[in-house]
Amino acid sequence: MELLIIRHGESEADLLGVHEGRADFPLTEMGEKQASKMATYIEKYYRPNIILTSPLKRANRTASLLQESIGCELIVENDLMEFNNGVLAGLSRKEAAIKYPLPEGGRPAHVPIQDGESDLEFRFRVEGIFHKILYEYQHYERVAIVSHGGTISNFLKAFLKQPMNCEFIFPTGDTGIHLLEIKENARIIRFLNKQEHLNGIEANVLNE
Predict the structure, then answer these.
(1) Domain that residue 25 falls in
(2) What CATH number corresponds to the domain at position 25?
(3) Which of 102, 119, 120, 126 is the 20 to 30 Å CA partner of 161?
(4) Above 70 in pLDDT, residue 203?
């Protein structure tokens, strides 16, 4: 079983300098172009049998453009959404720093952000969807997963069986692609954050 993990294209929040998370911004014109380039590339080299996507606009639209190229089934999985950042969603970073400053030393992993989720809850949610995919979609040879930077980073930690508080972070650029493989006795990383499909157009590396 192969897992083809894809981050959405550039969203309007990337240009506005706001906390995105659960704020539901659409793709920009550049994001549409990035997603189209990604879809063409995937169709040629890594065609999936099924596509799973977050319901948030930026990911869902990216997945829909991929589906148009591939023609396979597209399923929305709510647990592929980005970190629930509660009161920060849509706020400018400057305003957020004033209204909701981080506690000294950072927010403890078990403490949720106001109206949102904690880092522990986020990791637990991603572990849940990771194992659900392995169980419910195991009969597919290659599953495409379209999601968000923070979710993908936690997904990779789940794949690698890393603890929640490990120091490793896996950034993913706009429409960056990761290819993982699971065999009976092995978990294989084929590549991480491939973006060669964006050659010639601007690409940003962001984590939301």
Answers:
(1) 2-206
(2) 3.40.50.1240
(3) 102
(4) no
How far is it, in rounded angstroms, from Cα 208 to Cα 150?
Answer: 6
Paired strand residues for 12 = none
pLDDT digits (tens, 9 = 90+) for 42-60: 999 999 999 999 999 999 9
Binding-site sequence positions: 58
Binding residues for substrate: 58
pLDDT digits (tens, 9 = 90+) for 87-100: 999 999 999 999 99
Marked catalytic residue, from 2, 20, 77, 82:
82
Identify whether 19 is a catalytic site residue. no
State the Cα–Cα distance between residues 193 and 176, nearest whole angstrom.
Answer: 5
pTM here is 0.93
Question: In sequence order, which residues have a C-beta less than 8 Å from that of residue 160 and are 6 or more positions away?
Answer: 187
CA distance 151 to 149: 6
Domain tally, the chain? 1
CA atoms within 13 A on the CB side of 26: 5
148 among known catalytic residues = no
Catalytic residue among 2, 8, 10, 117: 8
Residue 18, phi-psi category: left (phi > 0), alpha (psi -120 to 50), beta (remainder): beta
